[in-house]
Amino acid sequence: MPVFTEYSSSPRDLRVLPSFAPPLPRLSSKFEPEPGDEKYEVVIVGAGPAGMMMHLLLTRYGLSDDSVLCVDAKPEVLKSGQADGLQCRTLEVLKSLDLADEILTQGCQQWEVAFWDPSTHRNADTGKVPPGIERTSLVSEVRVAARFPYCVTIHQGRIERILETDLLRYSKRGIQRSTRLVNVTIDEDGDPEFPVKAQLEDANDGSCRRTIRSKYLVGADGAHSVVRRSMGLKLQGESTNHIWGVVDLVLDTDFPDIRRRCAIHSAAGSVMVIPRERIPTGEYLTRLYVQIPGVVKADNDQEEEEEEGKGEAADKSKKEAKTRRNEVTLESILAHAEAAFRPYTIKPKGRDAVDWWTAYQIGQRVANEFAVHDSEGVNRVFIVGDACHTHSPKAGQGMNVSMMDSHNLAWKLAYAVHDLSANANAMLDTYHSERHRIAQDLIAFDRSISSMFSGQIDPLHGGITHEQFQQVFSTGNGLTTGCGVEYGGSCLVEKPDTEDDITDNLYPIQGTDYLAGILQPGRRLPNVRLKRHADGCKWDMQDDLPCTGRFRVICLTSSDLLDPSGKSATALRSLASMYEHFPPVVEQIVVHPRLSKDFMWQDIPSQVKKWSEMRFYSGYEMDGVQDVYAVYGVDPDHGALVVVRPDGYIGLISCLDGTTQVENYLRGCLKYT
Amino acid sequence: MPVFTEYSSSPRDLRVLPSFAPPLPRLSSKFEPEPGDEKYEVVIVGAGPAGMMMHLLLTRYGLSDDSVLCVDAKPEVLKSGQADGLQCRTLEVLKSLDLADEILTQGCQQWEVAFWDPSTHRNADTGKVPPGIERTSLVSEVRVAARFPYCVTIHQGRIERILETDLLRYSKRGIQRSTRLVNVTIDEDGDPEFPVKAQLEDANDGSCRRTIRSKYLVGADGAHSVVRRSMGLKLQGESTNHIWGVVDLVLDTDFPDIRRRCAIHSAAGSVMVIPRERIPTGEYLTRLYVQIPGVVKADNDQEEEEEEGKGEAADKSKKEAKTRRNEVTLESILAHAEAAFRPYTIKPKGRDAVDWWTAYQIGQRVANEFAVHDSEGVNRVFIVGDACHTHSPKAGQGMNVSMMDSHNLAWKLAYAVHDLSANANAMLDTYHSERHRIAQDLIAFDRSISSMFSGQIDPLHGGITHEQFQQVFSTGNGLTTGCGVEYGGSCLVEKPDTEDDITDNLYPIQGTDYLAGILQPGRRLPNVRLKRHADGCKWDMQDDLPCTGRFRVICLTSSDLLDPSGKSATALRSLASMYEHFPPVVEQIVVHPRLSKDFMWQDIPSQVKKWSEMRFYSGYEMDGVQDVYAVYGVDPDHGALVVVRPDGYIGLISCLDGTTQVENYLRGCLKYT
């Protein structure tokens, strides 16, 4: 199959530079816009974490500056405030982009969460319950199998800078800044191949208005998304009556858990403590979310514009909330925090201790559609990140879900643009079906945790109990770490057929504890530590699934691998003859269980070395290496075939003799010749 | 104590950038050269790994572009060939500079070494011994406790690029390239404060000759060092009669261990296989060291210039060797390699498979002195890296020992320049005493391994046995990994007094298996994994010893920590009152054994939180965390105090009640007020 691949420099010059991701092959003809006619294959609006991730992924997949444009109204990256939390799955994805190191090393790792509640224990000397709070429990932050068993807090501006620095290795232009989207329409009559029409202007003075056309457009333009409004999509949900202040500062305190994430419920209100990274002065930042007492009536709205007070329908309670939110000062936030921390004291440490602060009203809203079709039903305009869902920062999700939206969509777009797919539009359909469900789940969780968190722990007077709160917190761990995300069935996810298949051993996975590592179509492939055959190197499975847009077929061979006519050898030969029919975007990983004897390359089918020389592993337990079969729920006597999508989510699991199933699945995703 | 600290930008702007190392305080007045008068505090000649490391460390320690200059004759960093191996200790040091990530992730990790020897096993079918080689053993590459239990091969040009990229965060000027040193002299009469006079010129055409003066000068100008010659220092040693070819290439082969480090001894000659990193084409590089058969007489020389044929005294055998070396071609190297690999086949894979090749004669030489004094006995000129020792590449040491020379010297120079030291010149004296010994040990090892490696495994005819070879290889593991380096006693290393002290429990360390982790003054502090009190984070001890020029006092408290009048609390209070008398370059790390009950900050001496809030750990075994006391050889009932030098080597170990010893040691290193 003829393919076109573009490299930016000669291999020799590249040898002193950090490695570059190999671009995807392109089956469509090279995109060469005509001079004077501003056209792109993809336009991205907004360069926060969601937009930057989208831009970076598309350029890594091989889209050139001619092909993709990303604009942003802001003149530069953030310098303070906003989102700060990276969850386990996001860390795994950043690692798959080789962008995790600085974050893991220099960010603030959170391994534990402490719960503080009103004191109930009597002092041994006085016989009285002392006023204030006491620690009621201390638990692990992450209670699922994750490659990095902690979450990390770090300045959003640093994340954006890390993404942008990497982007500039692949894109000469980078982000086009100070450029604002005025509106976007789908206009199929003017130019059916480039039906998306976007009007841009200079963000400073509204000058230099121009119209550009594209095949696809991605709105990553935040909660007040112009793309969403232009497309007539609605945010649905409600804002609650709780107002919170948030402040990033260096603290002087005797509170013992200031370096742990804490949920503090005190009689004087609730505070969430988020430890943050060390700053150049050598001090450590802390973020406090502080409940501002008082009640305003909850309201339901269709659009956050109304909440902003623009809509005529804005009712009294909304206005009250907005007024009260605007009345919040740094001093009032700190005063409420001080009251909640008693008997411990907190105060800003020294001059310039406060880095950033704001006040907000909790709201949870999600857009009804994440994609808009043209008249032919082709997905043309997408919204990602805050443009399609907003929620409270309590669960530390904002930046994570936003980047993961782009991570889900980018490879599907690249496959469409590069014409690699058998049915590009069906793949693009899964963006809405997969991510809309996740957004809804998260918002439901956020609503319950936020409302419980805003309530007092006061079981005696009808409030929630500490146990109730912690229960909700724990249940959500799969969701909040990102490791429990499971996509539904589609052309990209083939769920096990029936219960019967499972009981009849037609399906090779045993067990259902997916959060502990058992494989399940629609969930991400959990990491395992293996030992490589070629060099004895101990290696992480996920490092064989870098984010390069490739599908992976993982062959967990059975204990008959050394038998040339066994089912393992048969499967490997059959897979090898299949790969030739697809574009070169399918990579093979092979794992073997403990075998009857030591062996060398010549003792096993030659296809293993040909297709996976450096991706062939022993998968049984030894020093520093895991029992992969046990972790994944695969019987070593039977083995399994697992197809992993380019974003690391499992598309299909079959028995070793299910190579036809694998082929059919891939034929639904890829061109076949 | 008043200190002067310079920051290059405001803390706020720094928040989106990677963290910067905090500079050392400066007690001497700020260095401000007079205009028109080219003077520096330190001049570095050469910007290979040794010179670049020296420059980077000095700038990180706080020396500005006014204060330090680094010149190099080459116009840019390397693009191919030369050194490629990074040993365990070097990886630890690069990690302490936060520069290891790309190397660990993108380099080639070597976990195992295979030994291949002439076949001796009869074929079961034919009853004959087949011609060629067979694998005789497969062992771990690293057999000592190391944070990274493997070595890494990666292009030297990448190491230099990584160091230079980081350097440019601290130095605006960076390396002054295309600038050659003509000569250097010590001229105390002209300017006693800046007695080192160096003449520089344009490396391209010899134009722009200029003279600069400095307090200190470091020659990192390689095997043909102008600094060494100008100072009249001699390289002593010998070159052997063995000639080797080396080639970096992409191979097409059925040899099963091509991705492992291999020592191949065949009847047709010896080959060493060094797997290398993946290159941008997706292929993997391999380096082969190939013995070129034939014998020339060994010679002893005082200077490598003679070997170069410049000296009149160059004798016939030297000329023969040189002639033969010059006759080696790529084709002959490959032909010899092919013969040694039989029955396996090797050939270059495709066009442009060969990246680089050369031929060399093994030689081991070391300079008699590593430093030159002025008439007052003050160390003024130093040589580091290849300028003071050359050896064969077999042990993979070149780049490592060179960078470690600079790592040993740089902080001592910075202390001298910043006037932080009680006796700067005595500290500078230890550069020669510590590094000269290591160079001699390495050369002795290299000589034995090289000569054995060049010999045939042929015990029947008086050759060495496989067991003899592997024995030498194993014994050297402490040396070659860098983890077994032990410096002798000096003002910076206080060895345990006598055997009596040890048996009388006046010395707190039990055990002598230093390569497994037992502490010993003069050796580097081995890494351990701990759990931090403040946040429950699991953490590596070595990450609390970043390469920032600070001394660390590690207090391994005893099991009486919760007793306010116990020896642990007493030691902590006594240490805290001592720190105030020193410049702020002493940091405290505290570890506690399993205690009788859970505790909070208020249950232990307040000095722990004040001096080591984020460096206070539990040191007993639990999930993913080690028993630090057992690893280090410390009895939890007695505890210990350990002082670690800025380069990570242990300076002093005492009992918990030995705070006076600690103070005396530090008073020998630091200003005291």
From TrEMBL, chains A, B:
Residues 310-325 have a biased composition (Basic and acidic residues). Residues 485-671 form the Phenol hydroxylase-like C-terminal dimerisation domain. The keyword Hydrolase does not apply. Pfam families: FAD_binding_3, Phe_hydrox_dim. Residues 40-321 form the FAD-binding domain. One of its GO terms (molecular function) is oxidoreductase activity, acting on paired donors, with incorporation or reduction of molecular oxygen, NAD(P)H as one donor, and incorporation of one atom of oxygen. Keywords: FAD, Flavoprotein, Oxidoreductase. SUPFAM superfamilies: FAD-linked reductases, C-terminal domain (SSF54373), FAD/NAD(P)-binding domain (SSF51905), Thioredoxin-like (SSF52833). It comes from the Eukaryota. Residues 299-325 are annotated as: Disordered. Belongs to the PheA/TfdB FAD monooxygenase family. This is FAD-binding domain-containing protein. It comes from Penicilliopsis zonata CBS 506.65.
